[in-house]
Amino acid sequence: xxxxxxxGFQTSLTPDNLLWCFIGVLxxxxxxxxxxxxxxxxxxxxxxxxLTMEPVTALIMLAGIYYGCQYGGTIAxxxxxxxxxxxxxxxxxxxxxxxxxxxxxxxLAIAAIGSFFAAIVSLILLCLVAAPIAxxxxxxxxxxxxxxxxxxxLTIISFSGDNxxxxxxxxxxxxxxxxxxxxxxxxxxxxxxGSVSLLGGIDFVVVMIxxxxxxxxxxxxxxxxxxxxxxxxxxxxxxxxxxxxxxxxITRGTxxxxxxxxxxxxxxxxxxxxxxxxxxxxxxxxxxxxKGAIEGVAASESANNAAANANFVPTLxxxxxxxxxxxxxxxxxxxxxxxxxxxxxxxxxxxVWGLLTSFFIGNVILLILNLPMAPVFAQVLRxxxxxxxxxxxxxxxFGAFAVENGVFALTVLFVAGLAGFFIKKYxxxxxxxxxxxxxxxxxxxxxxxTSAFSQGDLTIVFRQPLALTILGITLAxxxxxxxLKRFSRKSSRKSAAAQxxxxxxxAEEPAPSVDxxxxxxxxxxxxxxARGTRALDTTTTPPPRLTPSxxxxxxxxxxxxxKE
Length: 564
Fold this sequence. Notes:
Elements: H1 2-12, H2 15-33, H3 38-46, H4 55-80, H5 89-100, H6 104-137, H7 142-154, H8 156-159, H9 164-178, E1 181-182, E2 189-190, H10 204-222, H11 233-236, H12 240-261, H13 267-282, H14 294-310, H15 312-317, H16 324-335, H17 344-347, H18 349-370, H19 374-378, H20 385-404, H21 408-425, H22 431-453, H23 465-507, H24 519-524, H25 526-531
Antiparallel strand pairs: 1-2
Helix pairs in contact: 1-18, 2-4, 2-18, 3-4, 3-16, 4-5, 4-6, 4-14, 4-16, 4-18, 5-6, 5-14, 6-12, 6-14, 6-18, 7-22, 7-23, 9-22, 10-20, 10-21, 12-13, 12-14, 13-14, 20-21
């Protein structure tokens, strides 16, 4: 193991490989900031530029673009509520809320720290257990993957906010939209209404840009001219207390993201969404989720980066892409004459370990570039909105056109933007809509495969031990935290009720009874009345009497003190 790592660092630390790793990370960050492009498009666009390079150098650069895009998408998600990539959808929910409060720098910094931690931990696990995990992932058949999809769909509960019915309705609309076009299981078109443009379906990336970016711009314009955020620099800088608060979420997101990223076809988007939903269930600060919880940003970003690295487990060890971006990278392997699979680690050790160790170097470069620059990136919010909104619309149109390479995408973009305006106006959650569109095709594919495998008997999901375990974990994540919180509230109420009499007794003594008809009683308390320490208005009006000072009271109320 150590010999392999030394061989890898000797390869990745050469001047050429270091330079192209830096260029890849930098390009990835810039591409990720552009709405709609994302890692898959960025790698595909720049793939032809690597044809003249050595295979290991080319793969190091392409991998740098991949995980550079992960953080670039976060910058756009936090600053302008537009996920640069689908995996940053969960980050928008709390990241943009923090930005509106003048804490964009904190959100970006905790995203960089969480991504770096997740990258290092997942890379260590990748180097240690890539082959065994890949063999274990082979045990996941259609029924097990369907159970994973059910877990993803149940995270809608966490994205629905205070109104579960609205969240379920938006998720249902997303699932319906995902069925438009040619069926993945049957050679038939659905909901195309005779339009050739709809045969390919409605791309969820275009809808995502429209709902988040165009919808947000139209909503802000409709609300009136808003002033740019004038946050203080100290509010944009991360503090040790923020890191301490977010660290449990980072740890949980890293673990969950790595596990889901190892599954073929799962990708980073599912991992970030599931991690956000699970964190909301177990966090002590769950009520603040959706309003600017730093734990929400930490969980989704950690899971996103951990899954991005874990996607290379099935890609390298099995030759099966872990996600859409690694599918493009798999094509790059084949183009260079390299066959991924179980024998890759033995036949190409220099290439494999050089690529893996470049991940360490690239993530260090990413942290050095982006952590100090987080407050600088946040200054974008200081731009007058008359300048910022046209830029957002321009880049949104550019990204949508690049996704489908057609004018029809612009039509979908603006229709989705108009829908996004009404969604925000009537307080419907947007994340379940995108979640439904992302998971819809995968749910359909694994549902059809499971049905074919079991000859129509879908109860096989409850008979397969591994699938049943996944469903049990899902149920525990959804139910147990709520029960624990309810039990803790009841316990605290009982303890408070038990301590209440003692606290009352020790805190204050009962007021002594005073007979207002007796002059002596009034005279006894007259000194305290003059000091005015406590007032008590009587319901009866006694006759005027002389006080010790010789004055006659002017009102019918007598002021007394309940304590000596």
